[in-house]
């Protein structure tokens, strides 16, 4: 019940934050974020996120935890199932641990993207693949993105499994 209440509170806060729109910011042709007098374009943001997710999945296949960590903002939080949240240098270590534990591929499928020039909230499904193309885990995730000088970066990343708990 405590976890449910916490998730409900987080979801409410995200909904509140994403409903507050001010000065528009968008991706420019060189993949940087810049102020613009034009209205925020969620389609351009979706394109950025889709491209970044494709790179992310490729870096999982390569086993490059440092490249994975580079997708996160300096103040990001990564929250996997059944472990404490990690920040900073801990993000590369967490992804390194996931790769060492048998993750060979990560499939991300964005179901929804909402937000504004200040924050984006991506909701999706994931599948973790191991040796022999065996599914190790399936679940859902929420990623909060924020703009930085070199594009959108992951600010909060939480996912949890749809599989039954191990006994």
UniProtKB/TrEMBL annotation:
<protein>
    <recommendedName>
        <fullName>DUF4440 domain-containing protein</fullName>
    </recommendedName>
</protein>
<dbReference type="InterPro" id="IPR027843">
    <property type="entry name" value="DUF4440"/>
</dbReference>
<dbReference type="InterPro" id="IPR032710">
    <property type="entry name" value="NTF2-like_dom_sf"/>
</dbReference>
<dbReference type="Pfam" id="PF14534">
    <property type="entry name" value="DUF4440"/>
</dbReference>
<feature type="domain" description="DUF4440">
    <location>
        <begin position="55"/>
        <end position="154"/>
    </location>
</feature>
<feature type="signal peptide">
    <location>
        <begin position="1"/>
        <end position="23"/>
    </location>
</feature>
<keyword id="KW-0732">Signal</keyword>
């Amino acid at each position: 019940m405590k976890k449910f209440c916490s998730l409900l509170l987080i979801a409410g806060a995200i909904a509140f934050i994403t409903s507050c729109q001010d000065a528009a910011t968008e991706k420019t042709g060189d993949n940087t974020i810049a102020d613009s007098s034009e209205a925020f374009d969620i389609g351009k943001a979706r394109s950025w996120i889709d491209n970044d997710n494709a790179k992310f999945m490729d870096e999982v296949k390569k086993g490059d935890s440092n490249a994975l960590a580079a997708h996160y903002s300096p103040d990001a939080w990564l929250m996997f199932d059944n472990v404490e949240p990690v920040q900073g240098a801990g993000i590369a270590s967490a992804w390194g641990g996931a790769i060492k534990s048998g993750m060979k591929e990560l499939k991300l499928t964005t179901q929804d993207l909402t937000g504004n020039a200040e924050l984006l909230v991506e909701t999706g499904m994931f599948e973790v693949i191991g040796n022999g193309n065996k599914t190790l885990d399936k679940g859902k995730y929420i990623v909060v993105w924020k703009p930085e000088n070199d594009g959108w970066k992951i600010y909060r990343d939480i996912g949890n499994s749809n599989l039954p708990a191990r006994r």
